[in-house]
C-alpha cells in the first residue's frame, strides 16, 4: 500500500466517524425526540464499520465486501429513518462502494445510495428543494469522477514503475552482455592473432628446417642443432594450438560448427528456426568457424528483435573451395538501400548489425550479401573461400 492510499483511507475513516459523531451530537444537543435512537443507531453503524475495516476478508474477497456493504447500508437506512443528518453518511459510502465493488456494480450502488439519501431527506422535510436532489446526485458524480481519476493515475503510475523496472533490468542485462561480448571478442582476437602469426611462423620454421636438412650434401652427418630447432618449433607449435583451443568461443568448445549452429537454432525464443546442413562437412579454421557462428548469432538476434518472423532457417553449405551460410526469415523485411540496419528492421539495431557481419566476412576474404524488401522477408548470405593450405591439407596448423 502506497503512502497516498494510506492517507486517503485514514481520511475516509475520519470522515465517516466524524459524520456519525456529528449526527449523534446534534441529536443530543437539539434534544431531538429520537435522540436515544439516533445515538444507538450511530453506535451500531460505527461498530459495523469498524468490524469491516478490521476484517481481512472484506478487502480480499469481493463477496465479503458486498456483504459488509449490505450490512452497512441496512444500518444506514435505519439512521435515515430516525435522523435527517444521516444524509451526510452517503458521501463516504459512495467511496466505499466504488472501492470494494466492480465499477459497474459500484456505480449502481452509488445511484441507489443517492436515491436513498434523497428519500431520507424528503421523509424528514416538509418542503422539497432543489438542493435535496442536487446534493446527493452531485456528490455521487464527484465520487465516481474522483475514483475513476485516481484509478487512471494509479494504472499510469504502475505502468511507469514497470517500465522503470524493465529499463533497469534491461540496462543490467545489456551491461552484462557488453562485458561478455568484450571478453569473447578479445578471446577471438587473441586466437586469430596466435593462429595467423605465431602458429604460422612456427609452421614456416619447421618447413624451412626440413628443407635445410634435405639441402645437406648426401652422406653428410645430420646437424644436431637443426634437429633441436625442429623439435623446439614442434613443441611451441603444439603449445600455440593449445592456446587457440583454450581461446575458442564456448559454443565451439564441445563440437563442430554445425552442432553449435543447431544448438543456436534450438535455443532461439520466438520464431521457429530450422537448421540444415548441405555438402560434406569438414573441419574449418577457427577464425572461419568463429566468424560464421557470430554472423548467425547476430542475424538471428535481429530476427527475434525486429523481423516479427514466424519462421527462419539457417543453412550451412560446404563446397569444394568455399563454405556458405544462409539465414532466411519470413518477417516484414526492410529496404537494404535506405539504411544500414539489422535484419528485418528498418532501424532496429542502430546501424551496427549488418556492418559488423559484413566486416567479419570481408576480413576473411568472404562475400556478404543481403536481400530484402518490405513485406517480403530477409535473406542474409555469407560465402567464405577456404584457404589454399586448408584445401591441400599441407598446413601443419590446419586443425587450429
Automatic annotation (TrEMBL):
<feature type="transmembrane region" description="Helical">
    <location>
        <begin position="35"/>
        <end position="53"/>
    </location>
</feature>
<feature type="domain" description="Histidine kinase">
    <location>
        <begin position="292"/>
        <end position="388"/>
    </location>
</feature>
<keyword id="KW-0418">Kinase</keyword>
<dbReference type="InterPro" id="IPR004358">
    <property type="entry name" value="Sig_transdc_His_kin-like_C"/>
</dbReference>
<feature type="compositionally biased region" description="Gly residues">
    <location>
        <begin position="343"/>
        <end position="353"/>
    </location>
</feature>
<comment type="function">
    <text>Member of the two-component regulatory system NreB/NreC involved in the control of dissimilatory nitrate/nitrite reduction in response to oxygen. NreB functions as a direct oxygen sensor histidine kinase which is autophosphorylated, in the absence of oxygen, probably at the conserved histidine residue, and transfers its phosphate group probably to a conserved aspartate residue of NreC. NreB/NreC activates the expression of the nitrate (narGHJI) and nitrite (nir) reductase operons, as well as the putative nitrate transporter gene narT.</text>
</comment>
<feature type="transmembrane region" description="Helical">
    <location>
        <begin position="103"/>
        <end position="124"/>
    </location>
</feature>
<feature type="region of interest" description="Disordered">
    <location>
        <begin position="336"/>
        <end position="355"/>
    </location>
</feature>
<feature type="transmembrane region" description="Helical">
    <location>
        <begin position="131"/>
        <end position="153"/>
    </location>
</feature>
<keyword id="KW-0408">Iron</keyword>
<keyword id="KW-0812">Transmembrane</keyword>
<dbReference type="Pfam" id="PF07730">
    <property type="entry name" value="HisKA_3"/>
</dbReference>
<keyword id="KW-0902">Two-component regulatory system</keyword>
<feature type="signal peptide">
    <location>
        <begin position="1"/>
        <end position="29"/>
    </location>
</feature>
<dbReference type="InterPro" id="IPR003594">
    <property type="entry name" value="HATPase_dom"/>
</dbReference>
<dbReference type="GO" id="GO:0016301">
    <property type="term" value="F:kinase activity"/>
</dbReference>
<dbReference type="InterPro" id="IPR036890">
    <property type="entry name" value="HATPase_C_sf"/>
</dbReference>
<keyword id="KW-0411">Iron-sulfur</keyword>
<keyword id="KW-0472">Membrane</keyword>
<protein>
    <recommendedName>
        <fullName>Oxygen sensor histidine kinase NreB</fullName>
        <ecNumber>2.7.13.3</ecNumber>
    </recommendedName>
</protein>
<dbReference type="InterPro" id="IPR017205">
    <property type="entry name" value="Sig_transdc_His_kinase_ChrS"/>
</dbReference>
<dbReference type="InterPro" id="IPR050482">
    <property type="entry name" value="Sensor_HK_TwoCompSys"/>
</dbReference>
<dbReference type="InterPro" id="IPR011712">
    <property type="entry name" value="Sig_transdc_His_kin_sub3_dim/P"/>
</dbReference>
<keyword id="KW-0479">Metal-binding</keyword>
<keyword id="KW-0808">Transferase</keyword>
<dbReference type="Pfam" id="PF02518">
    <property type="entry name" value="HATPase_c"/>
</dbReference>
<keyword id="KW-0963">Cytoplasm</keyword>
<keyword id="KW-0732">Signal</keyword>
<keyword id="KW-0004">4Fe-4S</keyword>
<feature type="transmembrane region" description="Helical">
    <location>
        <begin position="65"/>
        <end position="83"/>
    </location>
</feature>
<keyword id="KW-1133">Transmembrane helix</keyword>
<dbReference type="InterPro" id="IPR005467">
    <property type="entry name" value="His_kinase_dom"/>
</dbReference>
Amino acid at each position: 500500500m502506497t503512502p497516498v492510499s494510506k492517507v486517503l483511507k485514514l481520511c475516509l475513516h475520519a470522515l465517516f466517524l466524524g459524520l456519525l459523531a456529528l449526527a449523534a451530537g446534534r441529536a443530543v444537543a437539539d434534544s431531538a425526540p429520537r435522540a436515544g435512537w439516533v445515538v444507538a443507531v450511530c453506535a451500531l453503524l460505527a461498530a459495523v464499520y469498524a468490524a469491516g475495516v478490521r476484517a481481512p476478508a472484506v478487502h480480499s474477497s469481493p463477496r465479503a465486501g458486498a456483504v459488509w456493504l449490505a450490512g452497512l447500508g441496512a444500518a444506514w437506512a435505519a439512521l435515515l429513518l430516525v435522523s435527517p443528518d444521516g444524509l451526510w453518511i452517503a458521501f463516504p459510502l459512495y467511496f466505499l462502494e466504488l472501492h470494494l465493488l466492480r465499477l459497474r456494480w459500484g456505480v449502481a450502488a452509488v445511484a441507489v445510495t443517492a436515491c436513498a439519501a434523497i428519500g431520507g431527506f424528503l421523509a424528514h422535510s416538509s418542503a422539497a428543494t432543489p438542493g435535496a436532489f442536487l446534493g446527493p446526485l452531485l456528490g455521487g458524480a464527484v465520487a465516481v469522477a474522483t475514483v475513476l481519476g485516481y484509478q487512471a493515475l494509479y494504472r499510469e503510475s504502475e505502468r511507469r514503475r514497470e517500465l522503470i523496472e524493465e529499463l533497469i533490468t534491461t540496462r543490467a542485462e545489456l551491461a552484462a552482455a557488453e562485458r561478455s561480448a568484450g571478453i569473447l571478442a578479445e578471446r577471438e582476437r587473441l586466437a586469430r592473432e596466435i593462429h595467423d602469426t605465431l602458429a604460422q611462423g612456427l609452421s614456416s620454421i619447421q618447413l624451412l628446417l626440413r628443407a635445410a636438412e634435405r639441402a645437406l650434401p648426401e652422406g653428410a652427418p645430420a646437424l644436431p642443432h637443426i634437429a633441436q630447432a625442429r623439435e623446439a618449433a614442434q613443441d611451441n607449435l603444439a603449445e600455440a594450438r593449445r592456446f587457440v583451443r583454450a581461446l575458442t568461443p564456448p559454443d565451439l568448445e564441445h563440437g563442430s560448427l554445425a552442432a553449435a549452429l543447431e544448438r543456436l537454432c534450438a535455443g532461439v525464443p520466438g520464431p521457429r528456426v530450422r537448421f540444415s546442413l548441405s555438402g560434406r562437412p569438414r573441419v574449418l579454421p577457427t577464425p572461419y568457424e568463429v566468424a560464421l557462428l557470430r554472423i548467425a548469432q547476430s542475424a538471428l538476434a535481429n530476427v527475434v528483435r525486429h523481423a516479427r518472423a514466424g519462421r527462419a532457417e539457417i543453412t550451412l553449405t560446404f563446397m569444394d573451395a568455399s563454405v556458405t551460410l544462409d539465414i532466411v526469415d519470413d518477417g516484414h523485411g526492410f529496404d537494404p538501400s535506405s539504411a544500414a540496419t539489422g535484419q528485418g528492421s528498418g532501424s532496429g539495431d542502430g546501424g551496427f548489425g549488418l556492418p559488423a557481419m559484413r566486416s567479419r566476412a570481408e576480413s576473411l576474404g568472404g562475400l556478404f550479401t543481403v536481400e530484402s524488401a518490405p513485406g517480403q522477408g530477409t535473406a542474409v548470405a555469407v560465402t567464405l573461400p577456404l584457404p589454399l593450405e586448408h584445401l591441400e591439407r599441407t598446413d601443419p596448423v590446419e586443425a587450429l
